[in-house]
Amino acid sequence: MNFLSHFYFDCEATDCYFVLGTVLPDLLKNADKRIVLHPEKLHHTNPAVNSIVAGWNKHLDVDKHFHSSNFFITHSHQLKKELLPAITGSPVKPFFLGHIAVELIIDNLLLTTGEIMVGDFYDHLKGCDNEVIDDFLVSAGLKDTTRFFRFFEGFKRDKYLNTYSETEQIAYALKRICMRIWDNPFTPQHEAQMNKVVINYRERLLPEFMSIFSEIESKL
Length: 220
Prior knowledge:
Layout: H1 3-8, H2 16-31, H3 47-67, H4 70-83, H5 94-112, H6 118-126, H7 130-139, H8 146-158, H9 170-178, H10 188-205, H11 210-219
Helix pairs in contact: 2-3, 2-6, 2-8, 3-7, 4-5, 5-9, 5-10, 9-10
C-alpha cells in the first residue's frame, strides 16, 4: 500500500511518531532505495522512538495482508494486462506497473471520496522532531541520515500527495516512481494512454475499493 492507504488505518491517531512509523519504510525507500533497515525488535529508552517502531511494524503487517489479498492479486494482474498495450516499447516491467497503479488508484479514491484528509497526514509529519527521527534511524543502523532528511524536508514542503486527488495525475505519478529505476520510462504518448486506462479502472474500483480496508482491519 502507498502512503495515504497506510495513513487511513490510523488517521484518527494522536501520536505523530506512530503515524510516521506507519509510512517510514516507504519514505526511506523513496529517499534512497539502497537503505535497508530492520528495526522490528528495536527497544529504546525514548518512548517516541518506540512509537516509531510500533508504527513501522504495523506498516509491515498491513503490507503483508494487502499483498496476499485476492483484491491486490486480482486487480494488479488485471491492470497489468490493460496497461500492457499502453506502454509498448517501454522498458518498465508490466507487473511492477500494475502493482504501483492499483496502489495509486486506491490513494486517489481515499482522497476523492473524503475518507481521509491529506492535510492531516502532513500535520502529523510536521509534528515530529527530527532529533527523535534521527535517534530512531541511527539506532536502527543507518550511519548517515543526511540523504533521508534532505528528502524528508522536501517531501513535507512540496506536499506532492495533494496531486493524488487529481486522477489525471496518476500516470505522471507512475512515471515519477518508475524513473527511480528506469531512465525516461515513458513517452508522452505512453502517459496519455496510461491515463485512459487508469481513469477507466478507477471507475470500476470505486464501488468496491473500501472492501480491502475492511478486510485488512479484520486481520490486524
